[in-house]
Amino acid sequence: MPDASQAESNGPAEIIVEGEAPEKKEVLVGSRIPRRAVFTDGIVATSMGTRGLVPQSGMDQGATVRTIKRRECKSDDPAIGKAAACLLLEAKAAIELADYSGADGALFYLADSEEFTAQERLAGAQWRYRLAGERGDAPTREDALEQMVETGAMNAVDQAQAQRALSTMARRDGRLPLARRRLLALDASGQAQTQDLANLAIMTRALDLQGAETYMNRAIIKRESGGGTAPKGWHDFVSPQL
C-alpha cells in the first residue's frame, strides 16, 4: 500500500462520472423523459439561476472558462465529453451537499450552452428536470423540459410527449396563448393526436381566433378514419344544435 508521499506524487485519482444505481444512470445517459407526473404537490419554488452564475456553481460573472478542480472527468456514455461530465459531477456533488441552487446553475449552463453537443445538453436538461421534480419546483421543471425539447436530441415520440406536456402545463395555470402555441408546434411536427387537435380547436375558439372548426374537423376525421367514434361534443362544436 503506497504511503502518503507516494500518493501525493502520483496526483489526484481519476474521477469517473457514472451512476451507481440504474435510476442515476438513466438520468445521465438516457434519452427518455422520466415517466412521472408533470406536476407534484407541495411548495413550488421560484426558478433558479441563469447560465450557472449562482453561488458555489464554479462560475463568476466575468469568467469565460469554467474552472473544474478535477484531474479528469469521464462518463460511461461516449456521447458525453469531459467538460460536460465535469459539470454533471459538479452538480452531483452540489446535490449531495444540499446546494440545490448550485446544482441547478451547473445543469442550466450545460443544458443552455451551445458549446456542448445536443446529447450533452439533453443530459444536463434531464438532470435538471428530475431534480426540479423531486423538489416540487414546477417552474424550473417546465424550463428544463423546454430545454430538452430545444436540444432536438430526443426521438420523435418523446419530443411529442414533451411538447404535449408543456402545453398542458401552460393550459392548467391559464396561459392559454402559450398552451396553444405549443400545440401548434406539435401539429407542425406532424405528431399531433386527435385529442391534441380537439384541444387546439377549443383553445382557438376560446381565444376568439379563426380556424377552430378546421382543427375540430381534423380531429373528427382522424379519430373516425382510425375506426374510432368521435364524441358528440366534437360534432356539436362544428355544427352546433340550434
Explain what the structure shows.
The chain has two domains: 1-154, no CATH class; 156-242, Alpha Horseshoe (Serine Threonine Protein Phosphatase 5, Tetratricopeptide repeat). A two-stranded parallel ribbon has the order 1-2. Helix 10 packs antiparallel against helix 11. Mean pLDDT is 76; it is low at 1-70. The chain has eleven helices and two strands; from the N terminus they run αβαβααααααααα. Helix 2 links the parallel strand 1 (15-17) and strand 2. The protein is 57% helix and 2% strand.
Care to give the gist of this entry?
The protein has 11 helices and 2 strands; from the N terminus they run H-E-H-E-H-H-H-H-H-H-H-H-H. It is elongated and about 65 Å long.
Please estimate the helix content: 55-70%
Report the β-strand fraction as a percent range: under 5%
Shape: elongated
The end-to-end span amounts to 90 Å
Strand segment count: 2
What structural class results from the helix and strand content?
mainly alpha
